[in-house]
Design a protein that fits this description.
- By secondary structure, the chain is α+β, with helices and mostly antiparallel strands.
- Among the domains are: about 100 residues, Efflux pump adaptor protein, beta barrel domain (Elongation Factor Tu (Ef-tu), domain 3); about 100 residues, Helix Hairpins (Orthogonal Bundle).
- The protein is about 40% helix and about 35% strand.
- The chain has nine helices and 17 strands.
- Strands 2-9-12-11-10-13 form a six-stranded antiparallel beta barrel. Strands 6-5-3-8 form a four-stranded antiparallel beta sheet. A two-stranded antiparallel sheet has the order 1-17.
- A hairpin with a 3-residue loop joins strand 15 and strand 16.
- Helix 2 runs antiparallel to helix 3 and helix 5 runs antiparallel to helix 6.
């Protein structure tokens, strides 16, 4: 230890001398990392996950209570609409049918009885009428007393009432027949429902009963089978974050993978973007239905799918690396940044008048028309000063500005010019401003204003700007210590 102590002291002294020795004030060397601009394909995607489902899954239940005495279908059984799946014990329902048939026979017999009663009442009425008429004639000749006529008249009126009663009872008997027929039909329907049949063509994917099981349908129909319709076509319900849902459109192409077939990609298409939001723990998502073909039925319901929805695609696009687009130089190397209007087709967002003038020029509008439209726009903006100062929300202000701008353009442009300007506006809304940097021979930087389009995980599209294929863009800068 005593021998090592002098060595340690010398080392400590050297380290302290190096640390406190005054540094040179010269600038360090600057090292740039660049990547060339090229042309290629860019595909923008939104990723999500979801479960494979059949296009239509029907749960088959029972409207009746009873014991299962027969099972015809099992898991994976292909069925057609109307095929027998299972049968409940029909004895109770057969007895109800027999009882209803007997009740119907009794009521039909009662109809015959009531019909006979009508005939009897009619005969009594005929006899009572004749007796009444005879008594009238005898009274006129003075052969009988008036009381005899009164009795005959009462008997005649009673016979009329008896006929009316008989006819009403006959109608009641006919109505009872209809009631009993309906009861018989209901009993037969219940008997038919003891046979559980498939409502659609498909495949049985679930069975919840066995022979001997008791089905209780007191409050709701119990589910006995689940049938998936036509597994040659499937759908996936994916949850897409609210930040990405704006770029997802119906009909967009998609692709997905499942763990059951690693390395294999399946093609699909967006079939529906549902409007109802799903909120969970302050995270809002939307359900996107993905449709896909499954001709060999390899994809099974319930499989978890990893989905990539294509929200934008450019072929042979001018592209720069994402690192170059994100790069920002340190303050001491920051060059003078050109205005966004220096990029072709990219008038500055901070100057709406300049942006509109640029688009009108690109749309082929002559200078006189541009000046007239510009003056009207300036007058319109001056008229909205009160709205701007009122503290109105940005959406309201934006709607008023867009409406006023369109009115001015409609008054000053031809329909063809208006279409071109609106197309340029849509193109501009789909892009954003950006700045990329190149290195000069003296190790200084030059800034290039560009308009950026869609991006993927590696590249960003350059829509416009003074950037060409092969140009090296800075992705990283490193300033080394001069004493290193």
């Amino acid at each position: 230890m005593r021998k090592l102590l002098p060595v340690l002291l010398i080392a400590a002294a050297l380290l302290a001398a190096w640390w406190f020795w005054p540094r040179s004030g010269g600038a360090g060397a600057v090292e740039f990392t660049t990547q060339a601009v090229d042309r290629g394909d860019i595909t923008r995607i939104v990723s999500s996950v979801g479960s494979v489902r059949a296009l239509n899954t029907v749960e088959v239940g029972s409207q009746l209570s009873g014991q299962v005495i027969e099972l015809v279908a099992d898991f994976n059984t292909p069925v057609e609409a109307g095929d027998l799946l299972a049968r409940l014990d029909p004895q109770t329902f057969e007895r109800r049918v027999q009882e209803a048939e007997a009740d119907l026979a009794v009521t039909r017999a009662n109809v015959s009885i009531q019909a006979a009663s009508i005939e009897k009442a009619r005969a009594n009425l005929v006899n009572a009428r004749a007796e009444f008429e005879r008594q009238q004639a005898l009274v006129e000749r003075g052969s009988v007393s008036a009381s005899a006529l009164d009795n005959a008249q009462a008997a005649f009126l009673s016979a009329q009432a008896d006929l009316s009663i008989a006819e009403a009872q006959y109608q009641n008997a006919l109505a009872t027949v209809q009631q009993r027929e309906a009861s018989l039909e209901a009993a037969r329907i219940d008997l038919e429902r003891t046979e559980i049949r498939a409502p659609i063509d498909g495949v049985v994917i679930n069975r919840d009963v066995d022979i001997g099981s008791t089905v209780a349908a007191s409050f709701q129909a119990p589910v006995l089978f689940a049938i998936a319709q036509d597994l040659t076509e499937i759908q996936i319900e994916a949850s897409v974050d609210e930040a990405d849902i704006g770029s997802v459109r119906q009909g967009a192409s998609a692709e997905f993978t499942v763990d059951a077939f690693p390395g294999e990609t399946f093609e699909a298409e967006v079939g529906q973007v549902r409007l109802a939001p799903n909120e969970e723990q302050n995270v809002v998502t939307y359900t996107v239905v993905i449709n896909a073909s499954n001709p060999d039925r390899r994809l099974l319901p319930g499989m978890t799918a990893s989905i990539d929805i294509v929200t934008g695609r450019r072929g042979d696009a001018l592209r720069a690396s994402n690192a170059a687009v994100r790069f920002r130089p340190p303050e001491d190397l920051m060059p003078e940044t050109p205005g966004e209007s220096d990029a072709r087709g990219g008038a500055g967002r901070g100057n709406p008048g300049e942006a509109m003038a640029q688009m009108l020029a690109e749309a082929g509008v002559d200078e006189a028309t541009r000046q007239a439209a510009g003056e009207e726009l300036r007058e319109g903006f001056r008229g909205m000063i009160g709205l701007f100062q009122s503290g109105a929300d940005r959406e309201t202000i934006g709607e008023r500005v867009r409406g006023m701008t369109r009115e001015v353009l409609v008054r000053n442009l031809t329909p063809e010019q208006l279409d071109r300007v609106e197309a340029l506006q849509r193109e501009r809304e789909a892009t954003r401003a950006g700045t990329v940097y190149t290195v000069n021979d003296d190790d200084t930087l030059t800034a290039h204003a560009v308009r950026l389009g869609i991006s993927d995980d590696r590249y960003t599209e350059i829509v416009s700007g003074d950037v060409e294929p092969g140009m090296d863009l800075v992705t990283r800068v490193r300033i080394t210590d001069p004493d290193e």
